[in-house]
Amino acid sequence: MVLPMTAAGNAPRTFAGWVGVDGNRIALVTESETAAAGFRAAHPGLREFDCRGKLVMPGLVNTHCHAAMTLQRSLADDIALMEWLHDYIWPFEARQTADDVALGMTLGVVEMLLGGVTSFVDMYYFENRCVETVERLGIRAMLGCNYFDSNVDEVMPQVEEAVRLAAGCDRVQIALAPHSPYTVSPENLLRGKRLADKYGLHLMTHISETQDEVRIVREKYGKTSVEHLDGLGLLGPKTIGAHCIHVTDSDIETLAARGVAVSHNPQSNMKISSGVAPVERMRAAGALVTVGTDGTCSNNDLDMFEELRTAAFLQKSATGDPVALPAWEALRLATANGARAMGYADGELGVVREGALADLIVVDLQKPHLQPVNDVVSNLVYCGKASDVDTVVVDGRIVVENRCVAGVDLPALYAGVAAAVARIKAGR
Ligand SMILES: CSC[C@H]1O[C@@H](n2cnc3c(O)ncnc32)[C@H](O)[C@@H]1O
Ligand SMILES: [Zn+2]
């Protein structure tokens, strides 16, 4: 069964048929047995997968995470954000090396691939060191080099190095990632914007995540975070704003008018009690809403199936409207919309369509929680699990087959991660 999705419009419909890949593109999407036979004849040596009883669909796009924070998963939970950052997260991060971050990134990417995520937008330290990691594992990524006022001088050369390292790989984009409008000065926000413009890069930041942020920004600049960033010229179609929870109607209009991609992270928002993003109001205003997991300390996993489900549930719960964020719209946020957030044109990624990039996943529907298939989209969003994904293709390459990630020795990875975490915790 094939779920093509579409760039816009109504609920997607499935069909029984064939999907053919040539190089890194989808070259055939058909219900015709004759067309499939023609494709087979024109491509001798083709590898074929029997997907009867399974679903072929676009890979999921996680538009906001800190993948290397897998090393800190469950390190400190059920405490307030500031205590969490100051007493646990930042001391741990201060002892991490670039190699540790690359290792954490490896674990995060493996978790995402096994959960059907074919593209992700990251925001962390040492992203220059992670270019090689991402290239090797085969996933598609936008790596955002995070900075604060305190380390901006260190990070800017890392951005330039990362741009050079990623130049030969279309799957990897580099981006500027000032942490937030309350931790980065206007001068340094503009410094990042200038570098982004120089290389044509995206820019991402946390926007209006907490009431505290709104208060601090108002006290410092007399504006909302959106007004402040907009006044600096930071908002545009190459901007990804994570969270966007505490936004006014006028902020929403601005986000929509500038073409900013909003990354909605419902599980993180619930876990650290940040609030509920007005997703339905943002969608109604025409803003590009997408879905992200955030880091594994505030979630605590990178499971986009759970995130989709939570996004739909949370909007229904918060608005009191069971019609809010229907399943197929939630799925669109995590496929076609996510692809647009990463700069891909409509129809180029996040859809199963001839000519699109071949980022596909195969979901095994032969599971008790996915039967019967009255509505496959509802099943995916309301019952789907990361572990239902059995095959993953990124850029035309098979990176997960029978739930094995190509080129990764999982026991060795887990042992390496455990050793690194023990060393960092011991302060060695
Ligand atoms: C965003 S990576 C840079 C920096 O931010 C810290 N961080 C991770 N998650 C959050 C969050 O939800 N709010 C604020 N800051 C966060 C991370 O540990 C890094 O130090
Ligand atoms: Zn975040």
TrEMBL record:
Its cofactor is Zn(2+). Residues 55-399 form the Amidohydrolase-related domain. Binds 1 zinc ion per subunit. It catalyses: S-adenosyl-L-homocysteine + H2O + H(+) = S-inosyl-L-homocysteine + NH4(+); S-methyl-5'-thioadenosine + H2O + H(+) = S-methyl-5'-thioinosine + NH4(+). Gene3D superfamilies: Metal-dependent hydrolases, Urease, subunit C, domain 1. Catalyzes the deamination of 5-methylthioadenosine and S-adenosyl-L-homocysteine into 5-methylthioinosine and S-inosyl-L-homocysteine, respectively. Is also able to deaminate adenosine. Belongs to the metallo-dependent hydrolases superfamily. MTA/SAH deaminase family. This is 5-methylthioadenosine/S-adenosylhomocysteine deaminase. The gene is mtaD.
